[in-house]
Design brief:
The protein is 52% helix and 14% strand. With 320 residues, the chain is an alpha/beta fold. It has one domain (12-314): Glycerol-3-phosphate (1)-acyltransferase, CATH 3.40.1130. The longest helix is centred in the N-terminal third of the chain and has 23 residues, at 12-34.
């Protein structure tokens, strides 16, 4: 806008850091593109299954697994964590190769594609929801292949140089409609839905302002955006999950649609719908727990504090 001051230039140290990170990102992506997709996927799994459990983030993974699966033995949780890190390694390696992992070449199969076609043919928007399952980029690839015009929401990377690479990488396999989270992105998203564009969101991470719904039996603050959008535009919620069927081979499942209840209590209806989405996500995690993204702190601090309490009691009384 005329008259607006230009944003302050980042300090030199930060700009140097961004360029170093960008160079490393580009080197890794370029190396992966020298390999065939299956070799790259296997390499990523091999590397991260060995490095991941040695990082500080492994503590968060183990705490999350204890909350979700309290009856698992320590050995079983460690084994599950290694499988999770391997899956995450496949995602990292495959990300730069998504133009070679497509519905068209058969590396992504879609179960329930007719549901996306129905949304496409209706000319009405929908709210597509998923979680961080396996290689979740496959969800966007399936949506693009369906022809349903959809805005893919995303959180911009902290490094603007890497953010540009990510956008370009997604554009290479057809993702052209983006809706950055917050601010202008939210306004663009709403304007797009008024024009009949659908929106795709991941709805499985902590959201500090959201209501508490039950997730693995624990209260978890959860974003209500998908349910509010569906309520506002009178459209369906289309759940989507991703499963791995092999190295650089994925299955995208388009589930039956959900609708926001209409009881007359709009706030309560949104919470009920948010719980329904969370239940579906939990069900998918229980079925294939190694494929979920366990490295983020999903629950509020009070829930994690119960783990410390359990350890204190066990130390005083001995194992049950």
């Amino acid at each position: 806008m005329p008259g607006e001051a230009a944003p302050p230039k980042p300090p030199l140290s930060r700009r140097i850091k961004w360029r170093v990170e960008d160079a490393l990102f580009g080197l890794f992506a370029g190396t992966m593109r020298l390999l065939d997709v299956e070799t790259a996927s296997n390499f990523g799994a091999w590397v991260l299954s060995r490095l991941g459990p040695r990082t500080g983030t492994e503590k968060t993974v183990q705490r999350n697994l204890r909350l979700a699966f309290p009856k698992l033995s320590d050995d079983a949780r460690r084994d599950l964590s290694v499988r999770h890190w391997a899956e995450l390694g496949r995602l990292v390696a495959e990300f730069s190769l998504m133009d070679r992992i497509t519905v068209e070449n058969g590396r992504i199969v879609v179960e329930g594609m007719e549901r996306l076609h129905a949304i496409r043919d209706s000319g009405r928007p929908s709210v597509m929801v998923s979680g961080h399952f396996s290689n979740w980029e496959a969800m966007a690839a399936a949506i693009v292949a369906s022809g349903a015009p959809t805005q893919i929401t995303y959180r911009a990377a902290n490094n603007p140089l890497i953010d540009r690479r990510i956008i370009d990488s997604r554009a290479a396999y057809g993702v052209k409609l983006f809706a950055p989270k917050g601010g202008d992105g939210a306004r663009d998203l709403m304007a797009g839905m008024k024009r009949g564009l659908s929106v795709a969101l991941l709805n499985d991470q902590k959201f500090s302002e959201g209501p508490e719904v039950s997730f693995f039996g624990h209260p978890a603050n959860t974003a209500t955006g998908p349910s509010r959008l569906a309520q506002r535009f009178g459209c369906v919620i289309q759940p989507i999950t991703v499963e791995r069927i092999g190295p650089a081979r994925l299955k995208v499942v388009i589930h039956p649609t959900l609708t926001v209840p209409d009881t007359g209590d709009r706030a309560a209806d949104v919470v009920a719908s948010t719980q329904a989405i969370t239940d579906l996500i939990e069900g998918q995690i229980r079925a294939r727990p190694w494929e979920w993204f366990w490295t983020h702190k999903r629950w509020p601090p009070a829930v994690y504090a119960t783990l410390a309490s359990d350890v204190s009691v066990e130390r005083r009384n001995g194992p049950a």
